[in-house]
Amino acid sequence: MLLYLEVKMQKRNIVLAVVLTFVTFGIYGLYWLYKMTNEMHELLGRQNTATGGWVIFYSLITCGIYGFYWCYKMGEAVSEVTEKHGMRSRTNESLIYLLLSLFGLGIICSCLLQDRINDFVELENSML
């Protein structure tokens, strides 16, 4: 059974999100992960991973291994949403996200994902 909730998407300041993540010792990062996941599902029109709360849970119980999968799937979602809006997608975005997370640069993956979400939110707001 797929439970799908509509989320209010908003542009986020990436620098502020990174600073808050470090200042709160990662707690804001979990909230940020939750929001990005649900917002990407909203943009995609379906779920391609678990919901935000379950992503956090799965990442914790697998000692971060699920996070690698999440990064890859978010890259796929970005490519799909980009094509859905009639734009040309970046090559191998999912692979880039995966490699960043594998080399311990998951925060960069989050920044890139948030940047793309900000672009999509701005595009959808301009279409209204």
How do you describe this structure in short?
Helix content is 70%, strand content 0%.
Considering the chains and any ligands shown, give keywords for the structure:
single chain, 128 residues, 6 helices, 70% helix
Q: What does this molecule look like?
A:
The longest helix has 22 residues, at 106-127. The chain is an all-alpha fold and 128 residues long. The chain has six helices and no strands. Helix content is 70%, strand content 0%. It is globular and about 40 Å long. Helix 4 (65-84) packs parallel to helix 6 (106-127). The chain has one domain (14-127).
Give the secondary structure arrangement, pairings included.
Layout: H1 14-23, H2 27-44, H3 52-61, H4 65-84, H5 93-102, H6 106-127
As a whole number of angstroms, the C-alpha radius of gyration is 14 Å
Classify the secondary structure makeup into a structural class: mainly alpha
Pattern of helices and strands: HHHHHH
Shape: globular
Number of β-strand runs = 0
Q: Terminal Cα separation, in Å? A: 31 Å
Question: Main sheet, how many strands, which sense, barrel?
Answer: none
Point out poorly predicted stretches: 1-5
Q: How large a portion of the residues is in β-strands, by DSSP E?
A: under 5%
Assign a percent range to the helix content: over 70%
Number of domains: 1
- Rounded mean pLDDT score: 89
Per DSSP, the total helix count is 6
**Assembly classification:** single chain
